[in-house]
Amino acid sequence: MKNTNTLRPSPTALLDPKCDSSFKAMFAADTEDSNKALKDFISTILNRNVVDLELMPNEPASEVKDQNQMSFDVSVKFDDGERIDLEMQSRSQDYDYSARAEIQAARLLSSSNRKGDNWKTPPAYQISVLNFHFNNDDFSPLEWYTMKRSDGKELAGKLNVIFFDLIKIHKLFGKPPEKLTKLEKWGLFLSYASDENKKDYIESIIKSEEGLMRAKSSLLTVSQDEINWAIENSIHTAICDYNTAILNAEEEGERKNAIASAKNLLIETDLSPEKIAKCCSLPLEQVLALKDELKAENR
């Protein structure tokens, strides 16, 4: 039963890690649970053991006048000074997301460069967890991009862009935990942690990995904060409003195109209004009205 005195849908409800604010709350709470979960997730993505990890300010300073101010979801320095911008992107945008990722990686790398280091700046990684297809193909859900020479060999390995496609993980739902890789388990956890209808299966995955148990514990803690629910709800509302506006605009565009096509057919052909209505998916009454309008214009 929903508790009307709280924004939390139920006493056991968890925030949705696919929402960027909740993703950030879970990984950047700076608690033992969140730190160990973050370290495990990054280690899984990079396929190496991350030893030391430190949360950094998530807004790098602008380097030149009029430079776009950036904000990273989770900014991390680890091991020997390597830097990570970890992002959750819940939906596809109107812009080229790959361009954004490259620019963010470049900003992260340049902000780490120091005078006198003889260009030995540690690598930077822009890691994006995507709740949409960046490439709708059969490749791995984890794609790693670096700068390469014309012969295909890596340049210096300083600039890294990594995309983790959650949608490609969805088909694995229901697979026994012992048959999943750690990366696949993380993908399923991030995809369905907030879905109470899938709770039993996701719980079996969580219990199989220490890092996921830490993530669940951190998510449970931040889910008790009303502010986090208010932020998540406002983001979901904004996304719904945006999607509705896009749908309405598309429908209006389709309607205008259909009307324009019907007018052209009335002018250029001898097709009957009935056939034009069927061809353009318009009501017959509307086509007849368009025919009368054209007659009036030609008088």
Automatic annotation (TrEMBL):
Pfam families: PDDEXK_2. It comes from the Bacteria. PANTHER family: PD-(D_E)XK NUCLEASE FAMILY TRANSPOSASE. This is Putative transposase/invertase (TIGR01784 family).
